[in-house]
Each structure stands twice: as structure tokens, then as C-alpha cells.
Amino acid sequence: MTDQQATADPTVSDPAAYSGVRTGPLQPGERVTITDPKGRRHSLLLSPGQRFHTAKGAIEHDDLIGGPEGVVVTSVGGVQYLALRPLLGEFTVGMPRGAQVVYPKDAAQIVVGADIFPGARVLEAGAGSGALSLALLRAIGPTGRLTSYERREDFARIAAKNVRNFLGTEHPAWDLRLGDLATALGDGEGADPGAPTEIDRVVLDMLAPWECVDVIADRLVPGGVICCYVATTTQLGRITETLRVHGGFTEPQAEESMIRGWHVEGLSIRPSHQMVGHTGFLLTSRRLAPGVTAPARKRRPAPGAYGEDYTGPRPTTAPTGDGAGTQP
Ligand SMILES: C[S@@+](CC[C@H](N)C(=O)[O-])C[C@H]1O[C@@H](n2cnc3c(N)ncnc32)[C@H](O)[C@@H]1O
């Protein structure tokens, strides 16, 4: 490869290509977050000659353009603002949204829990507002493939715009497709001929992921990971039991994460008074080889776990009688 080719191919010449990360002097068209002394943030799209008006007077964009980030600008009214390019997590919680976004703490957990790697072929649904898509795209890089299904056209449009706004360009590895995932991957009416046939990792953030287990099992490579992010315990139970009943997956692992901020100031070192108490649950499982079924679990279900009030999918090892959970 010649030097010229290396420069023309951003996947080779620039390791940060398509990450949305920029360094160097601030340029027109770039987004900058300014933060006042009380921690209030505003997002600016830098444009020569423009002013951003605050309650304490205007800030000239030209005072920022051409200079480094991490500077302090002062409004006409004398208030100081710290200016920085937004990090990915900051951008996703502040960007316009149709659907509720995956929070940065969960996006981080999904990237590792689903074992997303550079070059991976990842299937995602639904794209929602594109927050998780951005985290997945950063993890797979330009040599991977992220196919994201979204069944609502208005949400797909928002996701596409958010991703483009953060990256400043289209991502060569992203294929955003409009449609219902189960229908698109099925073989009936509405099947998508452009759907990926082999998938390394699946990440589902949608209302009813259990409806997609069969079609995903057909395309997920042996050892591939399915990761479902659900908001409620009823969804968690349903997707867990559906994966168990399918039989072609490892025992699903469920978890959630809570992050508590800390106040650190002199001798006053204590947990923050406020925290986000609940976002969602994460369920991960791995695809077994074709024709292989998971070994029967040795552990007995808890007494009453599959009692008469239980109406969901029923693993073959679950008791069908009075639900006392005493059968092996
Ligand atoms: C909670 S939002 C996803 C948010 C997204 N992960 C983000 O971080 O911005 C759930 C999305 O799934 C979409 N959805 C639900 N069921 C779907 C299906 N069967 N196929 C495709 N999209 C679906 C919804 O329209 C909605 O936009």
C-alpha cells in the first residue's frame, strides 16, 4: 500500500476514524458544551459570527473557534463558562430523543457483557434514538458491521440524525433498517432479503425480545452472544424462560448495575444524595452449536417458582404439578 492509499483510507491512517472524537483547535460546525459555575450545560454548534445568548449575556462563537477546547469564555454579563467537546456518554444523554436512550453506564456494561469487538458483525434492535448504536459502532469500528432494526420510521430518522451529528459523517459499518426484527428475520411476508445471515453478537433493547429468539438462533454463530436489555422484571422473566425453553442457548445470566456518585470535598466525603435507582436489567446468553441442547440444570427451581400462578414459557425441567418445586 502506498502512502497516498494509507491517507485516503481512514480505517488505516487514522485509528480514531468514525469514533466521533476530535482533537486540536475547535472548528466551525463542531459541537461544544459550555458549563456555567452552577454546572448548567448548554450545547453550541460553532458557527463564525454567531452568538449564544445566556441569561447573563452573550458568548461569541468566534471566541472559541480556532482555539483549544478546555478553555474558559466569559459572557458579556461576566459569567465564566468552561468549554469542552462533549464525550460520547454526555452527547447521548443530551441529544434529541424519540425513544428512551440507553444510559452510558448500561451502554458500557452492554459493550463488555455482549463482548463487542472490533470487526464484529452485530445485530441490534430497536435503534430507538441511536445512543446504543453509537456505543456499538465505536466498539466494532469501521471494519465491523452493525445492522440496526427500528420499526418506527420517526425514531429511525432521529437515530440516523443523532449518529451523524455525533460522528460528523455517515458510519461505513452502520446499516440502519426500517422494520420489525422478528418479521425481517423470518421467512414469511415482510422478510428482509438484506438481513444479515451470520451474526456474531445480538443486542436487543426492545419491548418483546422473546418474539425474536427463534429467528436469531438461526443466524447467531455458535458461541455468539445474545444480550437483552429490558426495563421490567416481567420482561426479564419472559426472555429468560424463552431462552431456556429454546434449549440452544447457555443458561442466561441476569444482572443490573447501579452507579452511585460521591461528593468529595475536604473532610466531607460521602455518597451523593441523589442517584438513578433503576434503568434496566441485562440478560446475556450464548448460542450453542446447531443440534446441541443445553445440559439439564442440576439446580432445582425455587419452591413455587413454576406454581399455578406461573403462566410463562415452561422449561422441561420445571415441575408441572402444584408448583412446590420438589421435582428434579
Ligand atoms: C427503548 S428504545 C431503544 C433505545 C436505543 N437502544 C437507544 O439507546 O437509543 C426501544 C426501541 O425498540 C423499537 N422496537 C420495539 N420492538 C421492535 C421490533 N420488534 N423490531 C424493531 N424495533 C422495535 C421501538 O420502536 C423503540 O424505538
TrEMBL record:
<keyword id="KW-0489">Methyltransferase</keyword>
<keyword id="KW-0808">Transferase</keyword>
<dbReference type="Pfam" id="PF08704">
    <property type="entry name" value="GCD14"/>
</dbReference>
<feature type="region of interest" description="Disordered">
    <location>
        <begin position="292"/>
        <end position="328"/>
    </location>
</feature>
<dbReference type="GO" id="GO:0160107">
    <property type="term" value="F:tRNA (adenine(58)-N1)-methyltransferase activity"/>
</dbReference>
<dbReference type="InterPro" id="IPR049470">
    <property type="entry name" value="TRM61_C"/>
</dbReference>
<dbReference type="GO" id="GO:0031515">
    <property type="term" value="C:tRNA (m1A) methyltransferase complex"/>
</dbReference>
<dbReference type="GO" id="GO:0030488">
    <property type="term" value="P:tRNA methylation"/>
</dbReference>
<feature type="binding site">
    <location>
        <position position="150"/>
    </location>
    <ligand>
        <name>S-adenosyl-L-methionine</name>
    </ligand>
</feature>
<keyword id="KW-0819">tRNA processing</keyword>
<feature type="compositionally biased region" description="Low complexity">
    <location>
        <begin position="312"/>
        <end position="328"/>
    </location>
</feature>
<dbReference type="InterPro" id="IPR014816">
    <property type="entry name" value="tRNA_MeTrfase_Gcd14"/>
</dbReference>
<feature type="region of interest" description="Disordered">
    <location>
        <begin position="1"/>
        <end position="40"/>
    </location>
</feature>
<feature type="binding site">
    <location>
        <position position="205"/>
    </location>
    <ligand>
        <name>S-adenosyl-L-methionine</name>
    </ligand>
</feature>
<feature type="compositionally biased region" description="Polar residues">
    <location>
        <begin position="1"/>
        <end position="10"/>
    </location>
</feature>
<feature type="domain" description="tRNA (adenine(58)-N(1))-methyltransferase catalytic subunit TRM61 C-terminal">
    <location>
        <begin position="91"/>
        <end position="265"/>
    </location>
</feature>
<comment type="function">
    <text>Catalyzes the S-adenosyl-L-methionine-dependent formation of N(1)-methyladenine at position 58 (m1A58) in tRNA.</text>
</comment>
<feature type="binding site">
    <location>
        <position position="180"/>
    </location>
    <ligand>
        <name>S-adenosyl-L-methionine</name>
    </ligand>
</feature>
<feature type="binding site">
    <location>
        <begin position="129"/>
        <end position="132"/>
    </location>
    <ligand>
        <name>S-adenosyl-L-methionine</name>
    </ligand>
</feature>
<comment type="similarity">
    <text>Belongs to the class I-like SAM-binding methyltransferase superfamily. TRM61 family.</text>
</comment>
<dbReference type="InterPro" id="IPR029063">
    <property type="entry name" value="SAM-dependent_MTases_sf"/>
</dbReference>
<dbReference type="Pfam" id="PF14801">
    <property type="entry name" value="TrmI-like_N"/>
</dbReference>
<comment type="subunit">
    <text>Homotetramer composed of a dimer of dimers.</text>
</comment>
<protein>
    <recommendedName>
        <fullName>tRNA (adenine(58)-N(1))-methyltransferase TrmI</fullName>
        <ecNumber>2.1.1.220</ecNumber>
    </recommendedName>
</protein>
<keyword id="KW-0949">S-adenosyl-L-methionine</keyword>
